[in-house]
Specification:
Layout (H helix, E strand, L loop, with lengths): L5 H5 L5 E3 L2 E3 L6 E5 L6 E6 L3 H18 L4 H17 L1 H12 L3 H18 L2 H4 L4 E6 L2 E9 L2 E5 L7 H12 L3 E5 L6 H12 L7 E3 L4 H9 L3 E7 L2 H13 L3 E5 L4 E5 L20 E7 L6 H9 L19 H16 L3 E4 L18 E4 L6 H4 L6 E7 L2 H9 L3 E2 L2 E4 L3 H10 L5 E3 L15 E2 L2 E2 L6 H7 L1 E9 L18
Parallel strand pairs: 7-8, 7-10, 8-9, 10-11, 12-13, 12-18, 13-16, 15-16, 18-19
Antiparallel strand pairs: 1-2, 3-4, 5-6, 6-22, 11-21, 14-15, 17-20
Bound molecules: nicotinamide-adenine-dinucleotide.
Nicotinamide-adenine-dinucleotide binds next to helix 9 and helix 10.
């Protein structure tokens, strides 16, 4: 936690949302929310006290009593309204997001928009939360299922998509009849709070959506709270593994979407125009390793030339391709990994350290950086860099490239660039990664499907949004029913397990 500066004392405070009211925390622990392009302190975020976290969960528990019985149409209409409010406020939301997170304005709109798609999906909950029925499973017996909400659910989100990821979580949880406690990233909670304000304006009743702020202590309190039934986490592998283990031991349903190292294969017949520097590399689905197969290894100078054309500047500047990374610490980490890459023997083809960014001299900038000759065992390959650093590796054949990717522990996303249907199909069949792009660099599925990262990038069986999340946020209850009409004559008492 950083000590409040004189500016920070004047900066507005981020509120908690408990029982339908935005309230000031009584905590003594605060952290500055800082514009990563300028270091301006935008706000102060509280680290909620244990009493405040308990109050948020209690308000969700109380609200669940009525919310779980609220008709599907009433629930769905709130999300119809919310999608409209998000569209109407898109410009403001994107500007807030860019100010606190750093990504460019068009990319910030993309962040909000990908979340908006989940809100639209939640508005169709009437078609998604359907049970099954089998007629006459025995004489006069029908069996059917109902998908019932769980109770109070919680969401813990990372800094890199402060609009999209909260919107992956609370709309689907609430649309399925649960109540929710959200713990946004303490690095950029402001756009998340604005979305929550819009959600209340759209008609979410008091207590159905609650927000607490904080870091490790708040997360551990959520993992331990007996009244929280399920947790959706998105963030790093280290923290996600901790959350999964701790909350599972407490009997909760948990899904954790975690770190990544996404590889692309470039086959020589591919279209050259692809790079991976959007959002300063701070995307869980960004391509961070490109494997050049055969002749495509000759493309390195073209890739470097293309990367050199990318404009590094504040996210609000027109034409910016690469904004700042989230914090000074994040920048120092990326720079030290670049230094380790050089020491480990990779070839630095393009050096993005210390870029000159006129007008943003204090910003946390790292320019596009490219290494070639990258191999497993080097830190730049083994660690998630989370900055605009592209690692190039080489393979003689497509088979070698597939083997290279399958040997990496992560399974979030991957892509192939080729004009050959046969190569693409082979890749799709043999690659052991949960989300595959064919000439699509960032294959994040739209919400009628589910986000399906795999292996070390995910813990828990069910993903966020899509059909899978309806399963995640509901308990299937199976009812076996026999109704006798008055004329049914008794055939004696059935004491066996068989239905007759
Ligand atoms: P993070 O793991 O540091 O933080 C995520 C959340 O955990 C935050 O709310 C934070 O307050 C909390 N937290 C941090 N340290 C904690 C601790 N020691 N104990 C308990 N809680 C703690 O992640 P981040 O840096 O905010 O986000 C970047 C990471 O998220 C990257 O690894 C990225 O790949 C991953 N990510 C994954 C996906 C996906 O869908 N797989 C999507 C977005 C981001």
């Amino acid at each position: 936690m950083n000590a409040p500066t004189s500016t920070a004392v004047l900066a507005p405070t981020v509120k908690l949302l408990i029982g339908g009211k935005f309230v000031e925390s009584k905590t003594t622990q605060w952290r500055d929310v800082v514009n990563p392009a300028t270091q301006e302190v935008l706000a102060r975020v509280p680290f909620a006290t244990p009493e405040e976290i308990n109050a948020a969960v209690a308000s969700g528990k109380e609200a669940f009593k009525t919310w779980k019985k609220t008709p599907i149409g009433t629930r769905a209409r709130i999300f119809l309204k919310l999608q409209q409010l998000i569209r109407e406020n898109m410009g403001e939301l994107a500007a807030l997001l860019t100010a606190e997170q750093g990504k460019t304005l068009p990319d910030a709109e993309g962040d909000v928009f990908r979340g908006l798609e989940v809100v639209e999906h939640a508005a169709g909950i009437g078609n998604l939360q359907l049970g099954e029925l089998a007629n006459n499973v025995a004489n006069g017996v029908d069996t059917y299922t109902v998908m019932q909400p769980l109770g109070v659910c919680a969401g813990i989100t990372p800094f890199n998509f402060p609009a999209m990821i909260p919107l992956w979580m609370f709309p689907m949880a609430i649309a399925t009849g649960n109540t929710f406690v959200l713990k946004p990233s303490e690095q950029d909670p402001m756009v998340t709070m604005r979305l929550c304000e819009l959600a209340l304006e759209a008609g979410i009743p008091p207590g159905v959506l609650n927000v607490v702020h904080g870091g490790e202590d708040a997360v551990n309190a959520i993992c331990d709270h007996p009244d929280i039934k399920a947790i959706s986490f998105v963030g790093s592998t280290k923290v996600g593994t901790h959350v999964y283990n701790r909350a599972s031991l407490n009997g909760k349903r948990v899904q954790c979407m975690m770190g990544a190292k996404n590889h692309a294969i470039v086959v020589p017949d591919a279209n050259k125009d692809q790079t991976a520097f959007g959002a300063a590399g701070q995307r869980c689905m960004a391509l961070s390793v490109v494997i050049l197969v055969g002749e495509s290894q000759k493309w390195i100078p073209d890739l470097v030339a293309k990367a050199q054309t990318l404009k590094v500047s504040g996210g609000t500047e027109k034409g910016t391709d690469v904004g700042p990374v989230i914090s000074c610490a994040a920048r120092d980490r990326v720079v030290s990994l670049i230094e380790r890459g050089i020491a480990d023997g990779a070839t630095l083809e393009l050096d993005g350290r210390n870029p000159s960014v006129p007008g943003y001299e204090k910003g946390n900038f790292v320019g596009p950086t490219i290494f070639s000759g990258v191999k497993p065992g080097m830190s730049i390959y083994d660690q998630e860099i989370f900055g605009p650093v592209l690692c190039l590796a080489a393979a003689d054949t497509l088979d070698d490239a597939i083997e290279f990717i399958n040997a990496n522990p992560n399974g979030n996303g991957t892509a192939i660039f080729t004009q050959s249907g046969a190569a693409a199909r082979k890749f799709q069949e043999e690659i052991d990664v949960g989300q595959v792009g064919i000439n699509v660099p960032i294959p994040v599925p739209v919400p009628i499907f589910s986000f399906t990262g795999s292996r070390a990038s995910k813990l828990g069986d069910l993903g966020p949004y899509g059909k899978q999340v309806v399963m995640f946020y509901t308990q299937t209850k199976t009812v076996t029913a026999r109704w006798f009409d008055d004329s049914t004559s008794s055939q004696g008492v059935n004491t066996t397990i068989s239905l007759k």
